[in-house]
Write a structure and sequence with these properties.
The structure is a homotetramer.
Chain A: H1 2-11, H2 36-43, E1 51-53, E2 73-76, H3 80-84, E3 93-95, E4 98-103, E5 109-111, E6 116-118, E7 121-122, E8 126-127, E9 131-132, E10 135-136, E11 147-155, H4 156-160, E12 170-171, H5 173-183, E13 192-196, H6 200-206, H7 208-213, E14 217-218, H8 220-228, E15 233-236, H9 253-261, E16 265-268, H10 273-277, E17 282-287, E18 297-299, E19 303-305
Parallel strand pairs in A: 11-13, 12-14, 13-15, 15-16
Antiparallel strand pairs in A: 1-19, 2-4, 5-16, 5-18, 7-8, 9-10, 11-17, 17-19
Helix pairs in contact in A: 5-8, 8-9
Chain lengths: ~300, ~300, ~300, ~300
């Protein structure tokens, strides 16, 4: 009880910020703001036609895997070497296919609104017991529409002139605000915000142990700033969006606030380097999760189109 | 040998149509035509901002599963019912995630160029033995860029005024040509073509046995028409793009011709009904496969944006 | 409530038959009767040294798979064809291995005591909520000791002179009693009982749809007979041990009675044909489940040694 | 070529030791020696009726997992917490089951004869290309009969009065010979030999990195000693049976010699501590692999019965 009280305190007010805002039965949360007008506006941001793929390659070497989660697995049901070694098919047809086993949160991905609860409730007053062994009956990733809208990259590394932020460094409201202003890319309702911390380079440079030991990320006040601006989704180049260790020491306050209280979509393990190198700070953003019925997240190949 | 000769005959000339066209080491095939100019043009097709999700829901009930392929599987590592029943986490944090196991060709998906070979070779003179148990070293789905370009829906059902084509009915060059003309949507180089046959309704109405027993689809001459027009990718609302049984009785000539000889991307199990109902025949098409390293295909949430 | 009352009625008295019998914390149930004396006695049943393997081959063709359960899957991480096609390892070492994905109840298997509950409780007054997404904290298959003891085959087909019993045919107390007497193999405490109904031949002859449509099996009174005799485990050549449809129409009364109330081990999909052909009615029985921590069952290669 | 020559040299003569010994089509190798006479003799070794389970618990915490292999995975299709939280079934029936995904060599296990080849051949002159993506057509684990026979534990720790042998320490012919003599347990044809090195404690004490860095194990000369005595199977409390690093520096000579040349069964990750504590050096050994069709190994619950 004390702990829960402490948590509520860490998150403070607004615990049910967007509940009921789009009706009692709503399962889309802030994705409701992706109106066709906004989508059409976003398409008009495309000038050069360059497409940036923000996903990490999907194999066990390219992805940091949180201990306890299964590594991505890829198995072939028939190989080319089988044919080369003499396996025959009718008419000489040589066909090969495969299966994948993935933790939905183990690659570049989007969290479903059903991913995180608090005090027994998910977003929009939904009982946590709706998430059963056979999937989330409410707020699953299949309820999330394709995210197509205006994207803004807040390149904190460039703004702060550092190769990367430090593990445990809090991304503050002020940092986001200043960076958006300096870039000339205001964060308006319905925007998808990507924040570059440079943290992914820790995985590349030092391996997954260092990568998961801590991370720079969104603090509680920055989370409120995102919520106040009606941001639809926020994606980072770290593994948890929020700063680790958290400011209060209480686990995952930003997850609890943004997903459960606000209905915002969190996206992780984004590769933002090419986008940053190209200086692309505003773009058409497209991310279409797999429609895993009752899924708690989805691997993703998010795109920024400039 | 006779059979192979027969196959070659069925496919006739042009067996190496696009080999070497983009260099000896090319692994992208016709996706090379998705230049930024074409992508920028495609974005200009967006007017209303409406987004159509062309994927089927991803669960074992919503998807026809070819016998022998594993059904999509979805397992939770922690449920909401666990928490409701008293499982505790530090600080009251309630977090749930999950894993999926999928046949890459068992949902709405795109074939990798490594999916199909013939006479020991894949596209661009690539030995089939490059496809090993640990994946395709060449032409894997990770080599396919996100497909962002002009999409055209050839709605054969509407054009021919039938609810659906028949199992085994050949989609001909003439049908595609006439439909494109009637719709006023010419098929130009770099286009992604979607063809609506109505066949998916057989699964919904009669189950998977009828669905897989036969299907209407692209015949060899229609395949040549697509190749001559430098179509990048072709997606259908059936399970194999091509007509089953095939015209010649030889297995999969269209797969062998379009994938292996031409480097075209085949996409299957598309839901084209909403798009057709809306009368949307030209649109910005976006399909971003998961970057499964060495993968022979990828599940997909393809989008048409109008 | 009415339904639950009905169930209780169908199962009638003795709902907590063996609860507390081996202590409040007991998680082994009737396997407690497998004392070393009984094991030593069982070993003395070995005369000829012939070993009968009672398992079905483990692949998707050899096993009837209940709709909804995943088929057994087997994937290689490296193939011999890879080496034949030129893959090299240091020192020329050619090594191959593989993974399997199995429903623990989808092959010849043993149920854990945690497999089945009723009215919120598992065997020995254990709350059903102890079975969480990450496994059964109590009564998992890892708590079941290897079953090594005296086995008796009650060959009902031979006894009743039929190739197989009919779907829906109830195996009665009298049938078991008479068969045991006729065979001269009394069922004494600590025995493992195998009952041959011949039903497996329906799968071989007619496929899995017929196989799962119904089955002959243990009725409630026969279940009580087994419990009264302190049988440790009961294995059949059908998919559910008990008769389907059940006598009362209420689902799975025998499962609920034998597993939950009595702590008996149910074993299914046994191949008893060779054993029957050899006329082996009494033997040393050995079945050692995999120690899947928190598992609800285990695939099994049960042996009868004569 | 030089490397292969070197390998052949390291293994020296006898490269086809048991090829053809039980016929050209034989796929059982030394398990052919498990005659019913020997099985009956083994059963007579049972005195006290005590059963030792030699398997490690099957979960990701209890098992050292070789980097690159998937960890054992266990997923529930329905939980007890689901029922506790209100999921209902017809008639109040509460049933739960689960699936497992295992590397066949990632737990206490037995290698199939198809597991290891050399110079393109498996045991008994079998081309390595018979091992295809869909499994081994020859020498799969499904061809291995249940191993039921006389078991001998050579407890080197006790014999040498050390808690455990060192990483890289070669178990020699002399050590095996002396230990067998001292114990009064001669190794005769048809015996299953278990060798205790104590190495498993490194995993428990120091974790998997140290465990896999090296290990004490069978050297080439000890391997020949085992082969000369017509041992059927050899099991150790390490991860590879043979000493790591190998004596010659060439990878896996003992695997190649014993599996491929001799048709002997290698078994790994055995827990021999309880057996050793009980001073049980001779016993009835029972290990029944899962009949994975075309499998390259099988998880195992091996038993020693005294």
């Amino acid at each position: 009880m004390d702990e829960l009280a402490g948590t509520a305190d860490a998150i403070s007010e607004g615990r049910r910020r967007n509940w009921g805002r789009w009706g009692d039965g709503d399962e889309c949360g802030l994705a409701n703001l992706l109106t066709s007008e906004r989508t059409a506006d976003a398409a008009r941001l495309v000038r050069s036609g360059r497409v940036f793929n923000l996903a990490l390659p999907l194999d066990e070497r390219s992805l940091p895997v949180l201990p306890g989660r299964p590594t991505p697995q890829h198995y072939l049901r028939r190989t080319g070497t089988d044919y080369a070694a003499g396996v025959k098919r009718r008419g000489g047809f040589e066909s090969m296919d495969d299966v994948i086993l993935l933790a939905t949160h183990g690659a570049t991905h989007m969290d479903a609104l059903a991913h995180v609860g608090d005090e027994g409730l998910l977003f929009n007053d939904t009982p946590i017991a709706t998430v059963r062994a056979n999937g989330a009956r409410k707020l699953g990733i299949d309820k999330c529409p394709p995210l197509v809208g205006r994207g803004v990259l807040l390149d904190l590394c460039r703004h702060m002139n550092v190769p990367r932020l430090d593990g445990g460094q809090v991304v503050t409201r002020q940092m986001l605000e200043d960076c958006a202003t300096a870039q000339g890319t205001p964060v308006t309702p319905g925007t998808i915000v990507l924040v570059r911390t440079g943290w992914l380079s820790v995985f590349t440079d030092e391996g997954s142990e260092s990568f998961f030991a801590a991370e720079p990320g969104i603090g509680m006040d920055a989370a409120r700033w995102l919520a106040e601006r009606d941001v639809v989704a926020v994606g980072l180049d770290n593994y948890a969006v929020e700063v680790i260790p958290t400011e209060s020491g209480i686990p995952a306050p930003v997850h609890r606030y943004l997903i459960r209280d606000c209905g915002m979509y969190l996206m992780e393990l984004f590769n933002l380097d090419e986008l940053a190198e190209a200086g692309a700070h505003e773009f058409m953003f497209v991310a279409a999760p797999l429609g895993i019925v009752g899924g708690l997240g989805s691997p993703l190949t998010p795109l920024a189109i400039t």
